[in-house]
Design goal:
286 residues; alpha/beta; binds zinc ion
Length: 286
């Protein structure tokens, strides 16, 4: 077995290669740690300085910020509804705020909002409207709630980043971290070959399990209140992957997804630990 870097979480170096392909970099292997289950890539050498700053995340056909906001509106609205009670009349900071769609929704609800985003055009886009910082080191003050939606899986050293973020939390504050799950049913239950060749991405350096996400929080010196299973994509999306081998079923076949069915399917996946998303609730230690 080729020698890889020791696992970020458990420090051992034995991995099994996962089936599938990194969609934008087929030279990379997808590794699952035999010690703890963390999923990572065989090398991080492809990571480029300035990639996110210059909108590299979007590939060659970069959408306008308005079009990008339309793409993420369903997640932004869901996150607003899911977490609004946490930041009502409080100070909110969104780390890796992307196009700012979540912050725009939260603006009327929180006493103060701010974002951190490397992508330069986002900082310019909101220059007079929403304070968007280019990094953690320039954020003044502390926040009641800090959110990080689908960010830390992009970072080579998520432990240090969470530790730095915790320095921006008020003593009773809360840090919400949402990441894609390594145990997504399409990967570990249905083993959809098409999905295995689509979902892995050179910019996702890690995929977490509930245990490894909890460990990352603890390694950052935080108290882990809970790690929740959450299903973003409905049954129509999964059926479409399994029958057509392609994404987009949740748009094409949305008539399948009644609210009751959606909830029941999510509950069933959650009971198996096979939702597509994990949400950690972290706090400072007392
Ligand atoms: Zn490990």
């Amino acid at each position: 077995m080729a020698k890889y870097l020791p696992c970020l979480v458990c420090n051992q170096s034995d991995y099994v290669k996962r089936k599938g392909r990194v969609r934008d970099n087929p030279d990379l292997d997808i590794l699952e740690c035999l010690g703890c289950g963390l999923v990572t890539l065989s090398s991080f050498e492809h990571i480029q300085q300035g990639f996110y700053e210059n909108s590299g995340m979007h590939g060659d056909d970069r959408p306008s910020i308005e079009n990008w906001k339309q793409e993420t509106a369903w997640d932004d609205q869901r996150r607003f509804q899911q977490f609004a009670s946490l930041f009502a009349d409080k100070k909110l900071l969104d780390f890796g705020c992307g196009n700012g769609g979540f912050l725009e929704r939260a603006r009327e609800h929180a006493t103060e909002i701010a974002g951190i985003e490397l992508e330069k055009r986002v900082q310019d886009f909101y220059s007079n409207e929403i304070k968007i910082y280019a990094g953690m080191d320039v954020v003044p003050g502390k926040y009641d709630v800090i959110t990080a939606f689908h960010v830390i899986e992009h970072l080579a050293d998520p432990v240090s980043i969470l530790s730095m973020l915790s320095a921006l939390l008020k003593p009773s504050g809360k840090l919400i971290v949402e990441v894609p799950s390594a145990n997504d049913a399409l990967l570990t239950l249905y083993e959809s070959e098409a999905f295995q060749k689509f979902t892995y991405w050179s910019q996702h350096l890690y995929l977490f399990t509930p245990d490894t996400l909890k460990k990352i929080g603890e390694m950052a010196g935080l108290k882990v209140e809970k790690v929740e299973q959450y299903q973003r994509y409905p049954l129509s999306n999964h059926l479409h992957w399994l029958s057509m081998g392609a994404p987009g079923g949740h748009k094409k076949w949305s008539h399948i997804d009644t609210p009751d069915l959606q909830q029941a399917y999510a509950d069933s996946l959650s009971a198996m630990g096979k939702c597509d998303t994990l949400i950690a609730h972290l706090q400072l230690k007392e």
